């Protein structure tokens, strides 16, 4: 129930409920619910979320035959090539939760994982990279917000206690 201002109201008519502060565990679980969306070059809207550690382990188990790496040129330092895991494209495919608003279930086996991967193709993987970049930026912003909150509460950090 909400009042005319849109604020939540207690069922017994009491004052509006104040927003509840999330616990650290709730905050961690919420980051796996956040979906980023991006259009691929074919116009499909690909929805992606972070994989939970248990889901990552399942994909590693489904792709045990893909244990190697490819060496790619590093644009920042040519003397240090970038290592790309052979299973990374499949890990990316497993993070897809929707295509054009149609839900995609987490794969239960390698055949289902391959089907999602094949549906995405190179165009879909490119959109996933854009989503993953934004998800990473969101995590960095969340960490900065938590650090700022700690500092505003007067909590000593290693930087502030070093000069004492």
What does it look like?
This protein has 164 residues and is an alpha+beta fold. The protein has one domain. It has helices spanning 24-31, 53-62, 88-94, 110-152, 158-162, and strands spanning 36-39, 45-48, 69-72, 82-85, 96-99, 102-103. It has a four-stranded antiparallel β-sheet. The radius of gyration is 21 Å and the shape is globular. Residues 1-7 and 160-164 have low confidence and may be disordered.
Note the overall shape: globular
Strand arrangement across the biggest beta sheet? 1-2-5-6
CA(first)-CA(last) distance? 51 Å
State which percent range the strand residues make up.
5-15%
Main sheet, how many strands, which sense, barrel? 4 strands, antiparallel
Average residue pLDDT:
83
Indicate the structural class: alpha+beta
Determine the fraction of residues in helical runs and give it as a percent range. Answer: 40-55%
């Amino acid at each position: 129930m909400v009042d005319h201002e849109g604020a939540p109201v207690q069922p017994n008519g009491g004052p509006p409920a104040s927003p509840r502060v999330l616990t650290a565990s709730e905050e961690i679980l919420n980051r796996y619910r956040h979906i980023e969306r991006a259009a691929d070059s074919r116009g499909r809207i690909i929805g992606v979320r972070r994989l939970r550690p248990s889901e990552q382990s399942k994909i590693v188990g489904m792709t045990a035959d893909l244990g190697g790496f490819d060496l790619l040129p590093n644009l920042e330092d040519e003397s240090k090539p970038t290592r790309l895991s052979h299973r990374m494209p499949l890990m990316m495919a497993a993070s897809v939760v929707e295509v054009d608003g149609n839900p995609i279930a987490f794969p239960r086996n390698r055949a289902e994982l391959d089907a999602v991967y094949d549906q995405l193709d190179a165009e879909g993987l490119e959109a996933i990279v854009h989503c993953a970049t934004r998800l990473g930026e969101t995590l960095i912003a969340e960490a900065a917000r938590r650090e700022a909150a700690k500092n505003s509460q007067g909590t000593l950090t290693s930087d502030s206690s070093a000069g004492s």
